[in-house]
Protein backbone atom coordinates (compact mmCIF):
# COMPACT_ATOMS: atom_id res chain seq x y z
CA UNK A 1 0.00 0.00 0.00
CA UNK A 2 2.97 2.32 0.58
CA UNK A 3 4.58 1.76 -2.80
CA UNK A 4 2.61 4.44 -4.73
CA UNK A 5 3.78 7.08 -2.27
CA UNK A 6 7.38 6.03 -2.80
CA UNK A 7 6.99 6.16 -6.57
CA UNK A 8 5.48 9.63 -6.40
CA UNK A 9 8.43 10.83 -4.37
CA UNK A 10 10.87 9.39 -6.87
CA UNK A 11 9.04 11.04 -9.74
CA UNK A 12 9.11 14.40 -7.99
CA UNK A 13 12.88 14.11 -7.64
CA UNK A 14 13.19 13.59 -11.39
CA UNK A 15 11.81 17.06 -12.19
CA UNK A 16 14.46 18.95 -14.18
CA UNK A 17 16.36 21.50 -12.12
CA UNK A 18 15.97 24.15 -14.81
CA UNK A 19 12.19 23.89 -14.57
CA UNK A 20 12.36 24.42 -10.83
CA UNK A 21 14.37 27.62 -11.34
CA UNK A 22 11.89 28.85 -13.95
CA UNK A 23 8.96 28.11 -11.65
CA UNK A 24 10.66 29.97 -8.80
CA UNK A 25 11.33 32.95 -11.06
CA UNK A 26 7.71 33.10 -12.24
CA UNK A 27 6.44 32.73 -8.67
CA UNK A 28 8.74 35.52 -7.48
CA UNK A 29 7.63 37.80 -10.32
CA UNK A 30 3.99 37.20 -9.31
CA UNK A 31 4.76 38.04 -5.67
CA UNK A 32 6.46 41.30 -6.67
CA UNK A 33 3.62 42.12 -9.05
CA UNK A 34 0.98 41.58 -6.36
CA UNK A 35 2.67 44.31 -4.32
CA UNK A 36 3.61 46.65 -7.18
CA UNK A 37 0.40 46.74 -9.27
CA UNK A 38 -1.87 48.28 -6.58
CA UNK A 39 0.82 50.91 -5.96
CA UNK A 40 0.97 51.69 -9.70
CA UNK A 41 -2.81 52.13 -9.80
CA UNK A 42 -2.72 54.43 -6.76
CA UNK A 43 0.15 56.44 -8.24
CA UNK A 44 -1.69 56.95 -11.53
CA UNK A 45 -4.77 58.23 -9.69
CA UNK A 46 -2.68 60.70 -7.68
CA UNK A 47 -0.77 61.74 -10.81
CA UNK A 48 -3.99 62.54 -12.69
CA UNK A 49 -4.66 65.48 -10.35
CA UNK A 50 -1.46 67.34 -11.19
CA UNK A 51 -1.47 66.60 -14.92
CA UNK A 52 -5.04 67.93 -15.31
CA UNK A 53 -3.95 71.17 -13.64
CA UNK A 54 -0.96 71.46 -15.99
CA UNK A 55 -3.13 70.84 -19.06
CA UNK A 56 -5.49 73.69 -18.10
CA UNK A 57 -2.59 76.01 -17.23
CA UNK A 58 -0.98 75.36 -20.60
CA UNK A 59 -4.09 76.40 -22.49
CA UNK A 60 -4.28 79.63 -20.50
CA UNK A 61 -0.98 80.73 -22.02
CA UNK A 62 2.78 80.28 -22.03
CA UNK A 63 3.32 82.48 -18.97
CA UNK A 64 0.73 80.55 -16.95
CA UNK A 65 2.41 77.27 -17.87
CA UNK A 66 5.80 78.63 -16.84
CA UNK A 67 4.34 79.80 -13.52
CA UNK A 68 2.80 76.39 -12.94
CA UNK A 69 6.16 74.76 -13.61
CA UNK A 70 7.80 76.92 -10.95
CA UNK A 71 5.02 76.10 -8.50
CA UNK A 72 5.46 72.36 -9.09
CA UNK A 73 9.19 72.69 -8.56
CA UNK A 74 8.78 74.42 -5.20
CA UNK A 75 6.01 72.04 -4.11
CA UNK A 76 8.32 69.06 -4.67
CA UNK A 77 11.48 70.74 -3.40
CA UNK A 78 12.07 68.24 -0.59
CA UNK A 79 11.88 65.26 -2.95
CA UNK A 80 13.00 66.54 -6.34
CA UNK A 81 15.92 68.89 -5.57
CA UNK A 82 17.50 68.08 -8.90
CA UNK A 83 14.49 69.32 -10.88
CA UNK A 84 14.19 72.43 -8.75
CA UNK A 85 17.81 73.32 -9.50
CA UNK A 86 17.22 72.62 -13.20
CA UNK A 87 14.21 74.96 -13.23
CA UNK A 88 16.34 77.69 -11.65
CA UNK A 89 19.06 77.11 -14.28
CA UNK A 90 16.42 77.35 -17.02
CA UNK A 91 15.84 80.93 -15.91
CA UNK A 92 19.29 81.96 -17.18
CA UNK A 93 19.16 80.14 -20.52
CA UNK A 94 18.64 81.87 -23.88
CA UNK A 95 14.82 81.57 -23.88
CA UNK A 96 13.88 81.26 -20.18
CA UNK A 97 10.10 81.52 -20.52
CA UNK A 98 9.82 78.66 -23.02
CA UNK A 99 12.42 76.46 -21.32
CA UNK A 100 10.76 76.80 -17.90
CA UNK A 101 7.37 75.99 -19.44
CA UNK A 102 8.82 72.99 -21.27
CA UNK A 103 10.53 71.89 -18.06
CA UNK A 104 7.11 71.74 -16.36
CA UNK A 105 5.78 69.42 -19.07
CA UNK A 106 8.88 67.23 -18.90
CA UNK A 107 8.75 66.99 -15.09
CA UNK A 108 5.15 65.81 -15.38
CA UNK A 109 6.29 63.22 -17.92
CA UNK A 110 9.07 61.90 -15.71
CA UNK A 111 6.62 61.82 -12.78
CA UNK A 112 4.30 59.62 -14.83
CA UNK A 113 7.08 57.25 -15.88
CA UNK A 114 8.54 57.16 -12.36
CA UNK A 115 5.34 55.63 -10.95
CA UNK A 116 6.23 52.26 -12.49
CA UNK A 117 9.85 51.75 -11.31
CA UNK A 118 8.97 53.31 -7.94
CA UNK A 119 6.18 50.79 -7.37
CA UNK A 120 8.46 47.98 -8.51
CA UNK A 121 11.11 49.24 -6.10
CA UNK A 122 8.75 49.02 -3.12
CA UNK A 123 7.63 45.56 -4.18
CA UNK A 124 11.22 44.33 -4.48
CA UNK A 125 12.27 45.85 -1.14
CA UNK A 126 9.36 44.09 0.57
CA UNK A 127 10.21 40.73 -0.98
CA UNK A 128 13.95 41.01 -0.28
CA UNK A 129 13.32 42.06 3.32
CA UNK A 130 10.83 39.23 3.90
CA UNK A 131 13.14 36.57 2.49
CA UNK A 132 16.15 37.78 4.45
CA UNK A 133 14.04 37.90 7.61
CA UNK A 134 12.99 34.30 6.94
CA UNK A 135 16.70 33.35 6.54
CA UNK A 136 16.36 32.50 2.85
CA UNK A 137 19.24 34.42 1.24
CA UNK A 138 18.96 32.59 -2.10
CA UNK A 139 15.31 33.59 -2.43
CA UNK A 140 16.22 37.17 -1.50
CA UNK A 141 18.87 37.20 -4.23
CA UNK A 142 16.34 35.77 -6.70
CA UNK A 143 13.86 38.52 -5.80
CA UNK A 144 16.55 41.15 -6.40
CA UNK A 145 17.53 39.66 -9.78
CA UNK A 146 13.91 39.30 -10.95
CA UNK A 147 13.24 42.90 -9.89
CA UNK A 148 16.28 44.22 -11.75
CA UNK A 149 15.40 42.25 -14.91
CA UNK A 150 11.87 43.66 -14.77
CA UNK A 151 13.29 47.15 -14.32
CA UNK A 152 15.26 46.83 -17.57
CA UNK A 153 12.03 45.88 -19.35
CA UNK A 154 10.38 48.98 -17.86
CA UNK A 155 13.33 51.11 -18.98
CA UNK A 156 13.11 49.87 -22.57
CA UNK A 157 9.33 50.39 -22.57
CA UNK A 158 9.81 53.95 -21.29
CA UNK A 159 12.33 54.65 -24.04
CA UNK A 160 9.92 53.49 -26.74
CA UNK A 161 7.09 55.48 -25.14
CA UNK A 162 9.15 58.68 -25.08
CA UNK A 163 10.21 58.27 -28.71
CA UNK A 164 6.70 57.46 -29.95
CA UNK A 165 4.94 60.41 -28.27
CA UNK A 166 7.69 63.04 -28.63
CA UNK A 167 5.91 64.99 -31.38
CA UNK A 168 2.39 64.91 -29.88
CA UNK A 169 2.91 64.86 -26.10
CA UNK A 170 3.28 68.63 -25.63
CA UNK A 171 0.08 69.31 -27.60
CA UNK A 172 -1.94 68.22 -24.56
CA UNK A 173 -0.45 71.11 -22.59
CA UNK A 174 0.11 73.95 -25.06
CA UNK A 175 -0.06 75.07 -28.69
CA UNK A 176 3.11 77.17 -28.46
CA UNK A 177 5.48 75.97 -31.19
CA UNK A 178 8.68 76.78 -29.29
CA UNK A 179 7.61 74.81 -26.21
CA UNK A 180 6.49 71.89 -28.38
CA UNK A 181 9.83 71.91 -30.19
CA UNK A 182 11.85 71.92 -26.95
CA UNK A 183 9.73 69.13 -25.47
CA UNK A 184 10.04 66.97 -28.59
CA UNK A 185 13.82 67.47 -28.57
CA UNK A 186 14.27 66.36 -24.95
CA UNK A 187 11.77 63.47 -24.70
CA UNK A 188 14.12 60.90 -26.34
CA UNK A 189 16.82 61.92 -23.83
CA UNK A 190 14.32 61.27 -21.02
CA UNK A 191 13.69 57.85 -22.53
CA UNK A 192 17.43 57.12 -22.41
CA UNK A 193 17.52 58.37 -18.81
CA UNK A 194 14.89 55.79 -17.90
CA UNK A 195 17.22 53.01 -19.07
CA UNK A 196 19.33 53.99 -16.06
CA UNK A 197 16.60 55.31 -13.77
CA UNK A 198 14.49 52.13 -13.68
CA UNK A 199 17.37 49.82 -12.57
CA UNK A 200 18.68 52.54 -10.24
CA UNK A 201 15.29 52.98 -8.54
CA UNK A 202 14.84 49.22 -8.21
CA UNK A 203 18.39 48.94 -6.88
CA UNK A 204 17.48 51.44 -4.15
CA UNK A 205 14.58 49.13 -3.28
CA UNK A 206 16.97 46.20 -2.94
CA UNK A 207 19.21 48.24 -0.64
CA UNK A 208 16.20 49.22 1.47
CA UNK A 209 15.25 45.55 1.72
CA UNK A 210 18.74 44.76 3.02
CA UNK A 211 18.50 47.62 5.56
CA UNK A 212 21.13 49.70 3.73
CA UNK A 213 19.17 52.80 2.64
CA UNK A 214 22.06 55.07 3.63
CA UNK A 215 24.26 53.42 1.00
CA UNK A 216 21.65 54.08 -1.69
CA UNK A 217 21.27 57.69 -0.58
CA UNK A 218 25.04 58.23 -0.75
CA UNK A 219 25.19 56.74 -4.26
CA UNK A 220 22.34 58.99 -5.44
CA UNK A 221 23.88 62.06 -3.83
CA UNK A 222 27.29 61.45 -5.38
CA UNK A 223 26.05 60.56 -8.86
CA UNK A 224 23.49 63.34 -9.18
CA UNK A 225 25.31 66.26 -7.59
CA UNK A 226 28.98 65.37 -8.09
CA UNK A 227 28.66 63.83 -11.57
CA UNK A 228 25.38 64.89 -13.19
CA UNK A 229 25.09 68.50 -12.06
CA UNK A 230 28.61 69.62 -13.12
CA UNK A 231 28.15 67.92 -16.51
CA UNK A 232 24.75 69.60 -16.97
CA UNK A 233 26.16 73.06 -16.21
CA UNK A 234 29.23 72.48 -18.39
CA UNK A 235 27.21 71.28 -21.40
CA UNK A 236 24.50 73.95 -21.09
CA UNK A 237 26.56 77.07 -20.45
CA UNK A 238 30.04 76.30 -21.77
CA UNK A 239 29.49 73.85 -24.65
CA UNK A 240 26.43 75.52 -26.19
CA UNK A 241 23.91 72.70 -25.65
CA UNK A 242 21.56 75.09 -23.79
CA UNK A 243 18.33 73.35 -22.63
CA UNK A 244 19.38 69.96 -23.97
CA UNK A 245 22.57 70.07 -21.89
CA UNK A 246 20.62 70.04 -18.62
CA UNK A 247 18.97 66.76 -19.57
CA UNK A 248 22.21 65.27 -20.87
CA UNK A 249 23.58 65.95 -17.39
CA UNK A 250 20.65 63.99 -15.96
CA UNK A 251 21.47 61.17 -18.38
CA UNK A 252 25.06 61.09 -17.10
CA UNK A 253 23.81 61.02 -13.50
CA UNK A 254 21.33 58.21 -14.14
CA UNK A 255 23.88 56.14 -16.05
CA UNK A 256 26.58 56.41 -13.39
CA UNK A 257 24.02 55.74 -10.66
CA UNK A 258 22.67 52.61 -12.37
CA UNK A 259 26.15 51.17 -12.97
CA UNK A 260 27.15 51.80 -9.34
CA UNK A 261 23.95 50.17 -8.05
CA UNK A 262 24.50 47.12 -10.26
CA UNK A 263 28.05 46.70 -8.96
CA UNK A 264 26.93 46.99 -5.33
CA UNK A 265 23.98 44.60 -5.62
CA UNK A 266 25.28 41.96 -8.03
CA UNK A 267 28.99 41.94 -7.14
CA UNK A 268 29.50 43.35 -3.65
CA UNK A 269 26.45 41.96 -1.82
CA UNK A 270 27.02 38.77 0.20
CA UNK A 271 23.50 37.44 0.67
CA UNK A 272 24.49 34.97 3.40
CA UNK A 273 25.93 37.84 5.43
CA UNK A 274 22.81 39.92 4.82
CA UNK A 275 20.62 37.07 6.10
CA UNK A 276 22.73 36.82 9.27
CA UNK A 277 22.57 40.58 9.66
CA UNK A 278 18.78 40.51 9.27
CA UNK A 279 18.60 37.86 11.99
CA UNK A 280 20.72 40.02 14.30
CA UNK A 281 18.53 43.05 13.62
CA UNK A 282 15.35 41.05 14.31
CA UNK A 283 16.77 39.55 17.51
CA UNK A 284 17.97 42.98 18.60
CA UNK A 285 14.49 44.45 18.10
CA UNK A 286 12.92 41.53 19.96
CA UNK A 287 15.29 41.99 22.91
CA UNK A 288 14.64 45.73 22.95
CA UNK A 289 10.87 45.16 22.94
CA UNK A 290 11.24 42.52 25.64
CA UNK A 291 13.26 44.88 27.82
CA UNK A 292 10.67 47.62 27.33
CA UNK A 293 7.86 45.24 28.33
CA UNK A 294 9.77 44.14 31.45
CA UNK A 295 10.38 47.77 32.40
CA UNK A 296 6.71 48.60 31.88
CA UNK A 297 5.70 45.59 33.96
CA UNK A 298 8.02 46.57 36.82
CA UNK A 299 6.76 50.14 36.69
CA UNK A 300 3.18 48.90 36.89
CA UNK A 301 4.08 46.74 39.90
CA UNK A 302 5.66 49.73 41.63
CA UNK A 303 2.58 51.79 40.83
CA UNK A 304 0.24 49.17 42.33
CA UNK A 305 2.43 48.89 45.44
CA UNK A 306 2.30 52.66 45.83
CA UNK A 307 -1.48 52.63 45.48
CA UNK A 308 -1.84 49.86 48.07
CA UNK A 309 0.41 51.68 50.52
CA UNK A 310 -1.64 54.84 50.09
CA UNK A 311 -4.81 52.91 50.79
From TrEMBL:
GO terms for cellular component: membrane. It comes from the Eukaryota. Pfam families: MatE. One of its GO terms (molecular function) is antiporter activity. The chain crosses the membrane at residues 35-60, 80-96, 103-122, 142-165, 217-239, 245-267. The keyword Disulfide bond does not apply. Keywords: Membrane, Transmembrane, Transmembrane helix. Belongs to the multi antimicrobial extrusion (MATE) (TC 2.A.66.1) family. This is Uncharacterized protein.
Amino acid sequence: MLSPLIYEKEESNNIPKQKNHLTLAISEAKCIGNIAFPMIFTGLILYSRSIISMIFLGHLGELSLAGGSLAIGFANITEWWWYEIMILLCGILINPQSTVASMGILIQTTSLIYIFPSSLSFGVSTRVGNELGANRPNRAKLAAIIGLCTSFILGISSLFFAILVRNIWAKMFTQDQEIMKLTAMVLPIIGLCELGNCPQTTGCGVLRGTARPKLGANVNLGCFYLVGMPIAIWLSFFMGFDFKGLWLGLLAAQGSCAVTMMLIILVKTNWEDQARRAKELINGDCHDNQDEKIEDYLESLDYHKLENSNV
